[in-house]
Amino acid sequence: MCVASREGIGSPKIVYFMTVDKVKFRKPVGPGDVVEYHVKKIKKRGSMWWYACEAKVSGIKVAEAELSAMLVDG
Q1: Residue 20: CATH number of its domain
Q2: Which PANTHER family did the record assign (predicted)?
Q3: Which helix H or strand E contains 72, and what residues bound it?
């Protein structure tokens, strides 16, 4: 989404994050931990996009959520 908002094709796009659902914090994360974010597109309908997201530290899932966003002309 963020890359799409900066593409040079056509007019600039603005990303509006709409919802954050099914959030689960599984383990605490502390200073010095390296957090890897894994995001997979679930579906797209019109200008709406839905994603499944995971956060991992050393390969262990520490959080997960589903989010939706809308991409509009800026």
Answers
A1: 3.10.129.10
A2: 3-HYDROXYACYL-[ACYL-CARRIER-PROTEIN] DEHYDRATASE (PTHR30272:SF1)
A3: strand 60-73
The total domain count for the chain is: 1
Q: What does the buried/exposed string (b/e) look like for 52-65 if buried means 16 or more CB atoms within 10 Å of the residue's CB? A: ebbbbbeeeebbbb
Nearest to 57 by CA among 32, 27, 34, 24: 34
Query: What pairing do the DSSP bridges indicate for beta strands 35-45 and 48-57?
Result: antiparallel
Model confidence over 24-60: pLDDT tens digits?
999 999 999 999 999 999 999 998 999 999 999 999 9
Please determine, for residue 9, whether its predicted confidence score (pLDDT) is greater than 90.
no
Q: What DSSP letter does each residue of 17-45 carry, written as one string?
A: EEEEEEEEE-S---TTPPEEEEEEEEEEE
Q: What is the pTM of this model?
A: 0.77
